[in-house]
């Protein structure tokens, strides 16, 4: 019994016509008689505007004409902070609901003019400006009673009527002034023709089958093919079919590949490592085993092992340190390769030597 019930809302819900939905929102629509604002669903259900921007747009639309809608003024009216209000105004400005421009008044005061449109999609598209009509001379009064088109006078009669009207105007004006010459109509602006579309030729990512293929790198060759290296390379290639039957080679293929295997053996590669490198993880199905062996023998060739002298750390440069000596006269320490006197004592001895002589 402690739960409050809104009996008025319950009675209004009972008067809703038709069956009520089992889930979702139920609308109780009561007509407004005063203080209401019409908001379109294009704004209330805009898929790209945030709820803050939609609510701020409804608040601005409900304000009377001339109300200040700056960020400071909206912050004083709403609970949101300045950053959220500024972000919502930028959203409305990006979708055409809001437009802000800075204008300079005659007194050199700059103001920000804010324009809000409740339905930007319905605005007419701007048309091309047409030249303004040429104004009539001030001395010729307009005819208050226009004549229908079928009763218009001929060109000669019309010229006579204009001359009579001008003579009457000169008679009424004691100080007639020459009628201003109407400016010539402005020449129509040339409509710029759109530039021809620039088509960028498509560069094929894959070369055509007829394109020349780059030459394949040659098989590695040993520096010196000795009979021992040739015999070991031939035996290794002939023994591949024991470990991988798909690598069964002919005699010509073995003679062709033996120098490349000899280059591997010359660089101190172990036969087991060579066999594992050549036969490990082949493509399935393997259609060209000789081509695969050529590629692996060429692309995976290891570098030669470094020598013993190359693995030794470089010696540090020898730095000669001059030892300290003790002066025979003043017992002061100084650096010198030979014992004796310091510089000051040597200069003093040199100065007194002529006097003693």
What does the model show?
The protein has 357 residues and is mainly alpha-helical. Among the domains are: 41-121, Winged helix-like DNA-binding domain superfamily/Winged helix DNA-binding domain (Arc Repressor Mutant, subunit A); 227-299, no CATH class. The chain has helices at residues 7-14, 41-44, 51-62, 71-77, 82-94, 155-172, 227-238, 240-243, 251-266, 271-279, 289-299, 343-356, and strands spanning 98-104, 110-116, 324-326, 333-335. It has a two-stranded antiparallel sheet. α9 runs parallel beside α11 (289-299). The longest helix has 18 residues, at 155-172.
Using brief descriptors, characterize the structure shown.
mainly alpha; Arc Repressor Mutant, subunit A; two-stranded antiparallel sheet; extended; 357 residues; single chain; two-stranded antiparallel ribbon; 12 helices
Radius of gyration: 52 Å
* Mean pLDDT value: 78
Q: Poorly predicted ranges (pLDDT <50, ≥5 residues)?
A: 138-142
Could you name the CATH class of one domain? Answer: Mainly Alpha
Q: Quickly give the structural class.
A: mainly alpha
Tell me the span between the first and last alpha carbons: 134 Å
Please summarize the sheet with the most strands: 2 strands, antiparallel
The fold-level CATH name of one domain is Arc Repressor Mutant, subunit A
- What fraction, in percent, of the residue positions are helical? 25-40%
Name of the CATH homologous superfamily of one domain: Winged helix-like DNA-binding domain superfamily/Winged helix DNA-binding domain
Strand segment count:
4
């Amino acid at each position: 019994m402690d739960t409050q019930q809104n009996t008025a809302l319950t009675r209004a819900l009972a008067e809703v016509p038709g069956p009520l939905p089992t889930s979702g929102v139920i609308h109780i629509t009561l007509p407004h008689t005063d203080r209401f604002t019409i908001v379109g669903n294009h704004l209330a259900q805009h898929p790209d505007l945030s709820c803050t921007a939609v609510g701020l747009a409804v608040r601005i639309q409900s304000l009377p004409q001339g109300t200040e809608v700056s960020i400071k003024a909206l912050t004083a009216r709403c609970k949101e902070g300045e950053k959220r209000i500024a972000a919502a105004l930028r959203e409305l400005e990006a979708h055409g609901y809001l437009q802000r421009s800075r204008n300079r008044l005659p007194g050199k005061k700059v103001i920000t003019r804010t324009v809000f449109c409740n339905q930007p999609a319905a605005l007419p598209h701007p048309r091309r400006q047409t030249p303004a009509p040429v104004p009539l001379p001030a001395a010729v009064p307009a005819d208050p009673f226009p004549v229908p088109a079928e009763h218009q006078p001929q060109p000669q009669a019309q010229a006579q009527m204009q001359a009579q009207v001008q003579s009457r105007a000169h008679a009424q004006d004691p100080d007639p002034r020459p009628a201003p010459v109407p400016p010539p109509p402005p020449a129509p602006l040339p409509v710029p023709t759109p530039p021809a579309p620039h088509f960028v030729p498509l560069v094929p990512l894959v070369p055509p089958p007829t394109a020349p293929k780059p030459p394949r790198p040659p098989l590695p060759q040993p520096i010196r093919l000795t009979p021992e290296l040739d015999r070991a390379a031939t035996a290794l290639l002939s023994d591949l079919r024991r470990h991988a039957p798909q690598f069964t080679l002919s005699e010509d293929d073995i003679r062709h590949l033996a120098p490349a295997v000899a280059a591997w053996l010359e660089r101190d590669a172990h036969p087991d490592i060579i066999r594992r490198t050549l036969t490990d993880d082949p493509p399935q199905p393997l259609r060209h085993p000789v081509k695969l062996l050529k590629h692996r023998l060429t692309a995976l060739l290891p570098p030669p092992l470094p020598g013993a002298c190359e693995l030794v750390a470089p010696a540090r440069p020898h730095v000669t340190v001059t030892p300290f000596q003790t002066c025979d006269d003043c017992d002061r320490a100084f650096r010198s390769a030979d014992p004796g006197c310091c510089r000051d004592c040597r200069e003093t001895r040199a100065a007194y030597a002529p006097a003693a002589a």
